[in-house]
Automatic annotation (TrEMBL):
SUPFAM superfamilies associated with the record: Jann2411-like
Zinc finger CGNR domain: residues covered: 125-167
Pfam families referenced in this protein's UniProt entry, alphabetically: ABATE (PF07336), zf-CGNR (PF11706)
Protein name: CGNR zinc finger domain-containing protein
Record PANTHER family: BLL6575 PROTEIN
Source taxon at top rank: Bacteria
Gene3D superfamilies referenced in this protein's UniProt entry, alphabetically: Jann2411-like domain
Length: 176
């Protein structure tokens, strides 16, 4: 049954969305260990850095705000380590590929997917929930591309309830 609330991204971006969501902020669980085929602390650190850089980059897609320099640096570093190359293909197109193996190659694959999505025009719709305690990555399928909250947890409703409660408390405070 389709609810119209699917949050999955197009194929090319779905692994990026899932990677960001290996950290479930609301539940307080981190599945990065399962995603990453390595127990090396440096690998884990780099993967975590890239994950948060991607989360911030997706958050910037809400208002098209510039990316912080630190985020750009992390993305650039991942691309450099991935040892990206451009290769032409027989079907008169070209593709990018990563020459790196292991964790650098795996993280490079995510960077490539972001590049492809930027080229395809789907990247601006990868967002993270605007509710601070959630920040779940979702693909914005709203017609105008103005979705702010993930649908799965009904964060839009919760955010509105929280705003209403805050207004009510303020009103009570000013009345007493
Ligand atoms: Zn949410």
């Amino acid at each position: 049954m389709s609810t119209g609330l699917s949050m999955a991204a197009p194929d090319q971006l779905e692994p990026v969305r899932r990677f960001i969501n290996t950290l479930d902020i609301e539940a307080g669980t981190d599945a990065l260990d399962d995603w990453l085929d390595s127990t090396d602390p440096d690998d884990l650190h780099r993967a975590r850095e890239l994950r948060e850089a991607l989360r911030t980059a997706a958050a910037a897609n809400h208002d098209k705000t510039p990316l912080p320099a630190a985020v750009v640096a992390v993305l650039d570093d991942a691309a450099r380590r991935a040892d990206l190359v451009v290769a032409f293909t027989p079907d008169r197109h070209w593709r990018t590929a990563s020459r790196a193996t292991g964790v650098d190659g795996a993280l490079g694959d995510l960077v490539l997917r972001v590049l492809d999505a930027m080229t395809a025009g789907t990247w601006p719709r990868l967002k993270v929930c605007a509710r601070d305690t959630c920040r779940w990555a979702f693909y914005d399928t709203s017609r105008g591309g103005t979705g702010k909250w993930c649908a799965m947890r009904l964060c839009g409703n919760r955010a509105k309830q929280e705003a209403w409660r805050a207004r009510t408390l303020r009103a009570r405070g000013s009345a007493s």
